[in-house]
Amino acid sequence: MAALAVWAKEAGKIVTGTDVAEHFPSDEVLGSVAIPVDVGFDPKHIDQYKPDLVIYTGAHDGRDNVEVKRAETLEIPVLPHGKALGMAMEGKRQITVAGSHGKTTVTAMIATILSLAGLDPSYVIGSGMVRGLGLPGHFGAGDWFVAEGDEYVTDPGHDETPRFLWQKPEILVVTNIDFDHPDVYPDMTAVVAAFKKLVSQSGTVIAGSDDPQSAALSATSILVGSNEANQFHLKVPGLHNAVNAALATAAANAAGVSREQSMKALAQFGGAKRRFEKIGEYRGILYYDDYAHHPTEISATLAAARGLFPKRRIIVIFQPHTYSRTKALMNEFAHSFNDADVVILTDIYPSAREHDTMGTTGETLVGETSRHHGDVRYAKGQSDVQRLLTKILMPNDVVFFMGAGDIGQWEKQIIT
To answer: For the domain with range 83-272, which CATH number is right: 3.40.1190.10, 3.40.50.300, 3.30.70.100, 1.10.10.60?
Structure first.
């Protein structure tokens, strides 16, 4: 939403917003372009600003949000974010990056490549600031529009259309397909069906060859994977990022950018916010922040960390995100921390869309993970994590804060 807001402001629109009081990485983005954000949802904001259009997310009651309802009462058009993004992309040559994992990084890589190649693309990237690129949103003068394609539904409870189906990509990148949203998809078959529908309305399809589901999407896909990944020299670590670079290069090539130009641009790419982001070093201890919230992502990030720090003790603090995902993927989560020496698990951070705990807690995950890992601790929240780290940290440790909740803000209080 923040990246789309930046795009809209650069397009010459007057943009305002409303959010909860919690701090997000997007705050830096919005502040840097002077987009004002009111705290707390209130119908009076609609009366105050008299907007021509209201765009809303699926969180905070979605279409039933009090501001959205007020706009409807006043006959002001309202749009869910996914549909609004699709409309923003109309009239441009579209590059969509879809997939359960890695789409933010690949989208940021493609935007970086096309920008440094002088093509001035528009783009909307689902992150905070992008190192080597800057803002995650841009209204460009060029022909291309690069954006993530999210398989989550458009408007929970109202419109079950997968969000990426509002896009009509000339070039589609599918990084991988995994079971990541058990609250809206009953099984993997349903997830694959959504991706197949996206493929049917796309032009050139570039898919991750290391992932069987992606590789089988289309008989005419250009398949890219780890075999093509060993030629890249990147600032971001891990085999998964080398594969991401290979996918981004293939997409850029389909858009007319040479491999040499792509490799030169990617050498300057420093990664998206909260993706293996180094956030500090204190008393000989390294601290990183990462958005990983799915077992596949956790495993990939920790494998990259182990490759980068083979002889250092790695401590991961993981905050599970959503009860439905934690319950559905309990066994996978329990096996995803093998490359960490110490695992600290917190309470579950619920989605704003979710109200049923499903009988699942952070302690449930601790019990299951302890069956497969030798050092698993439970720390309810930020203050508990801080007390535990004070007791166990030693010089030369590497600490990862990991998850899609508010854990990304904890390090400001903990790193002292």
So the answer is: 3.40.1190.10
pLDDT tens by residue, 371-381: 999 999 999 99
Please, where are the H alpha helices in 153-225? 188-200, 212-215
- Distances from the Cα of 308 to the Cαs of 312, 343, 392, 397, in angstroms? 9, 18, 22, 13
Element (H, E) at 259: helix 259-266
CA gap 209, 176 in Å, rounded: 9
d(CA 33, CA 50): 21
Q: What is the CATH number of domain 2-80?
A: 3.40.50.720
pTM: 0.84
Candidates 296, 289, 280; CA nearest to 402 is: 289
At 320, give phi and psi (nearest 5°). -60, 150
pLDDT (tens digit per residue) in 141-199: 999 999 999 999 999 889 999 999 999 999 999 999 988 888 889 999 999 999 999 99
Residue 416 has pLDDT above 70, yes or no: no
Six token digits for residue 328: 């559905």
Q: How far apart are CA 231 and CA 149, in angstroms?
A: 27
Looking at residue 288, what is its pLDDT?
Answer: 92
Secondary-structure percent of the chain, ordered helix, strand, coil, rounded to 5: 40, 20, 40
For the ranges 135-139, 221-225, 289-293, which has the lowest average pLDDT? Answer: 289-293
Alpha carbon 37 to its chain's center:
22
Each domain of the chain, given as residue ranges in start order, spans 2-80, 83-272, 277-414
Tell me which architecture the domain covering 277-414 has in CATH. Answer: Alpha-Beta Complex (3.90)
Contact by Cβ (8 Å): 138, 7: yes
